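Final report, Chapter 2: Outcomes

The project's central promise was a pipeline that accepts a single protein chain and returns its three-dimensional structure in a standardized token representation, suitable for archiving and comparison. That pipeline is now operational. To close this chapter, we reproduce one record exactly as it appears in the project archive, with the input sequence first and the structure output second.
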Amino acid sequence: MRSWIAVALGGIIGTGLRLASDTAFPHTANAFPWDTLIINLVGSLVLGVLAGGVWGRPGLPPWLKVGLGSGVIGSFTTFSALTAASVTLTTAGAGWLALTYVGVSLLLGLGAAALGLRVGASAAHRRMPREITDEGIDL
């Protein structure tokens, strides 16, 4: 039950942060969606840091992991926002910009997650994890 509550509360926080970011940095239908890209990159980096370092600490409650990961980060960064921005660009006649946006998002998102894993592992004074499962981190 704690995990459900943690995800719900984390979702409220992440959604609020997402709305604040979208409000502060709006974009038009045919402009490159920098705000969505930056939000998703920040989320990928933070999730990598958490998974690479913080979540490996002994005694960290599972509800905190899902509250931060699935709740806060999951609602802050969304695949649906990437998809919606891509469809909006395409319907506005900027198909190549949409394709570029998806490609840049994937490449930089993977890079940000890898960097986050490395930073998190380094901060925790551990090797970078080879695999992250629901049961924990495989070093």
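Archive annotation: The chain has a mean pLDDT of 87.
This record, like all others produced under the grant, will remain available to the consortium after the project formally closes.
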